[in-house]
Structures are given as C-alpha cells and as structure tokens.
Design a protein that fits this description.
This protein has about 260 residues and is α/β, with parallel strands linked by helices. It has eight helices and seven strands, in the order E-H-E-H-E-H-E-H-E-H-E-H-H-H-E. Strand 5, helix 5 and strand 6 form a beta-alpha-beta unit.
Length: about 260
C-alpha cells in the first residue's frame, strides 16, 4: 500500500536509536525525507548512514538537545533551510531517571518537564506556522502506556507525559480546522535499551535475576513478545500519511495488549 508519503518532510526526535530510529526508518521506507535529531552526534550519524543504506532516502542530521529552546529553533531552521517546509513532526526523546517520588527534588522535576513537556510545546509551536503555510500538518507525540497504567518508579515520566496527552488533545481541537492532525502514541514494552535498563534496575532493587525478570515481561503481554521499534513506526506512518487525515486527538497504545483496562 502506498501511503502517499513520498517527499514529505518529517522531523523525528530521538532518532539515533530505539523507537525514534524505528519511526525514522519506516518513514524513509515510505519515501519521506527525514530530518533526524538527538543529542549524541556520532550515534545520530551512524543511524543516518543505516537509513540511507537501507532505504535510499534523503536524511538530514541535526544534532540537538530539545530540552533547550534554542536547539528546538535550530532544528526547525535547519529543516526549512534544506527543504523549505515542514510536513510532519514526531516529538520523541529519551525518558527521565527512574526512582521513588520522594527522592526527586525540584531540580529533577524541572528537568523532566523540560525534557518531556516543554520540548513538545516548543517544537510544535515552531512548526505549526510552517505546516499551516504548506497546507499539510501531522504532529505525533511519543509517550508511554504507563501514562494510563502507571508503574512505580516512573513518576517523572508518567506525570509529564500525562501533560503531553492533555496538551495534544487540546491542540487537536485548535488545529483541526487547519487540517493539521495531532495524535499521541503510547508504546508498551518495546525491545530497546531503555526497557533493558529499567528492568535491570528493578531486578537489582528487588533482588531478582535480571534475565529472568526480562523473560517474565513476555508473560504479561498477550501477544507473548516484546514490541519492536518498527511496530511503533508502522502506526506512525499511517497517522502521518494522507490516509490518516481523519484521525486526530487520539492517544493510541501499541503494547501487544498489555494494558488491561477497557
């Protein structure tokens, strides 16, 4: 199926690895020109080389720290300089530290807000005028299924990403008349370095074998496997395409059935 993404201009955050890389690779396969950004330039360049080799797509690398307002503006400016427009924005980054709520001070909370919420607000605000001018706009925010099914130790992520979902829903109401859609993706247990780190830290805390705990994760997922970055990328590709034009204001989990609530 041709999703109609050929030559669309897409900015993807956190694209040096994991879910961000999976999304960028999928959009490149569909013919989009992808602008990938992350903090670690060497890893970002390697990711770009892999995408170019696998897909033949045009990839622009813009190292940045989206926790900083000036870097958000830098990504948008670089994209406009290279391509003259912005069609798609995928807000995705790493996640704040894990730990007990009582152990986090104001500084930790402020950093989490900058990383998970303000980065989305700033990147989106900078892109909206150009989407309106171009007559096409798709905004995707990547959060986590834990915003609906909270997990102890992930308070910084859960609280700030819940704010992203509320922000995105409100934004979808305001941008709908302009034909710009806004949706949020809630991945479950996706096989990334972040999942392994969190699981190993929990295992140490609980005195369990890390490998056994990782294996136990599978039994809680009805599909009986961990998700893959490309599973998330496939849904994003649909939502940012012309075929996803009537889907907006949603928060969709990609979790293999992990969330138990109706």
């Amino acid at each position: 199926m041709d999703l109609g993404l050929k030559d669309k201009i897409a900015i993807i955050g956190g694209a040096s690895q994991g879910i961000g890389y999976g999304i960028a690779h999928q959009l490149a396969e569909e013919g989009a020109k992808v602008v990938i950004t992350a903090r670690r330039e060497p890893a970002l360049e390697k990711a770009a080389d892999r995408i170019r080799t696998d897909t033949g797509a045009e990839v622009l690398v813009v190292p940045s720290d989206v926790r900083k307002s000036e870097d958000c503006m830098k990504v948008v400016a670089a994209t406009l300089k290279a391509y003259g427009r912005i069609d798609i924005l995928v807000n995705n980054d790493g996640a704040p530290p894990i730990g007990r709520i009582e152990d986090f001070d104001d500084s930790a909370w402020q950093k989490a807000v900058e990383q998970n919420l303000y980065s989305v607000i700033r990147m989106t605000r900078n892109c909206i005028p150009h989407m309106k001018a171009g007559g096409y706009g798709r905004i995707i925010n990547v959060t986590s299924v834990s915003t609906r099914q909270p997990i102890a130790g992930l308070s910084l992520s859960v609280a700030t990403w819940a704010g992203v979902i509320a922000y995105a829903k409100t934004l979808s109401l305001e941008l709908g008349p302009a034909g710009i859609t806004v949706n949020t993706i809630l991945p479950g247990r996706v096989d990334t370095g972040r999942l392994e780190l969190v699981t190993r830290q929990r295992a140490v805390k609980e005195g369990k074998d890390p490998e056994k705990m990782i294996a136990e994760l599978l039994h809680e997922v009805p599909i009986n496997r961990l998700g893959r970055p490309e599973d998330v990328g496939a849904l994003v590709a649909l939502l940012v395409s012309p075929r996803g034009a009537y889907i907006t204001g949603t928060a969709i989990q990609v979790d293999g059935g992990l969330q138990r609530a109706v």
